[in-house]
Amino acid sequence: MPAPILPVAPGALPDPIRLAGESRGNGAFQDVLASAIQSVEGFGQEASASVQRFLSGEGEELHSTVMATQKAELSFELFQQVRNKVVSAYQEIMRMQM
Q1: Distance between CA 21 and CA 17 in Å, rounded?
Q2: Nearest to 43 by CA among 18, 81, 83, 76
Q3: Other beta carbons within 10 Å of 6
């Protein structure tokens, strides 16, 4: 028998995910999804701005630019994987016989 799924303590999640999951209304999933998309977009914009500052010589250091681009890339890849899992779960539910 599989172990029961227990709720996660509020302080155990990273800030963007915890903040996105705080709304528990009718559109909770929609709110979480919108927050995740905004977070990924924010990381991408931050990386773009960092690259532009580095290329224009505004004092941006190379390591901070690389870190910003890596953060943006990893957050996008994570978002894609979560999306793939959600789509896969939806497809599995739709294949169920009632």
Answers
A1: 6
A2: 76
A3: 6
Instruction: Please state, in angstroms and rounded to a whole number, the distance separating the CA atoms of residues 68 and 50.
Output: 7
Tell me the whole-structure pTM to 2 decimals.
0.65
User: Would residue 54 be called left, alpha or beta, if left means φ above 0 and alpha means ψ between -120 and 50 degrees?
Assistant: alpha
Q: Of 35, 39, 37, 47, nearest to 73 (Cα)?
A: 47
What's the sign of the alpha-carbon dihedral 67, 34, 32, 93? Answer: negative
- Residue partners of 61: CB distance under 8 A and separation at least 6: 54
Query: What digits encode the pLDDT tens for the residues 55-97?
Result: 999 888 999 999 999 999 999 999 999 999 999 999 999 998 8
Query: From the CB of residue 43, how many other CB atoms can be counted at a distance below 10 Å?
Result: 21
Task: Give me 17's structure tokens.
Answer: 């995910």
pLDDT tens digit sequence for 20-40: 445 455 678 889 889 999 999
Q: Check if the beta carbon of residue 11 is closer than 8 Å to that of residue 17.
A: no
